[in-house]
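INFO batch 0412 | record 1 of 1 | parsing
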Amino acid sequence: MSQGYQIINQSAIHYLTFQVVDWVDVFSRQLYRDIVLDSFRYCQKEKGLWLYSYVIMSNHIHLIAASKDAKLSDLIRDIKKFTAAKILKAIETEPESRREWMLKRFEFAARSKSNMTSSQFWTHENHAVEIFSDKFFFQKADYIHQNPVRAGIVAKAEDYLYSSASNFMDKGGLIGVEYYGTRVIDTNRNITF
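INFO prediction complete | emitting tokens
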């Protein structure tokens, strides 16, 4: 992993990207998107995830997040591990026309890594970028919310269900997110109240 994408300050807010190996379009199915949201909800309630912004696209996820316990790397590892196992199980057991092809892609990806078991769902990179200012936060949040618009899925960002864009418009959303204004970044880039 390059030095530029490592999470150095575990208590800082970060912009992150989780990518499915080989850009497999797993999240074109609601079942798999819902697994991710369930994981986010659980981590918000039980593991100290502060989720500020997110979008689930067909083969990747962008989010802005922090760890209440200053253990962001551990939190990301847990989210990716849990969602990978749960999604792979769903692919194997639920109706899925692309089952054989997807499972072969994930098995092939694992074979190229010596530390993997039988399947690899997520790439190892998180493309973590520390949020260092209010302006940068809102630039990244806008980028996240405009993903479905740029992809031609919706005309307005807040109309895409699997995004926090509607939360930002005070219209609620499928999952709650933190209001950025309630936490600020001090000069050491630590989350404060």
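INFO post-check: The chain is about 40% helix and 15% strand.
INFO record closed
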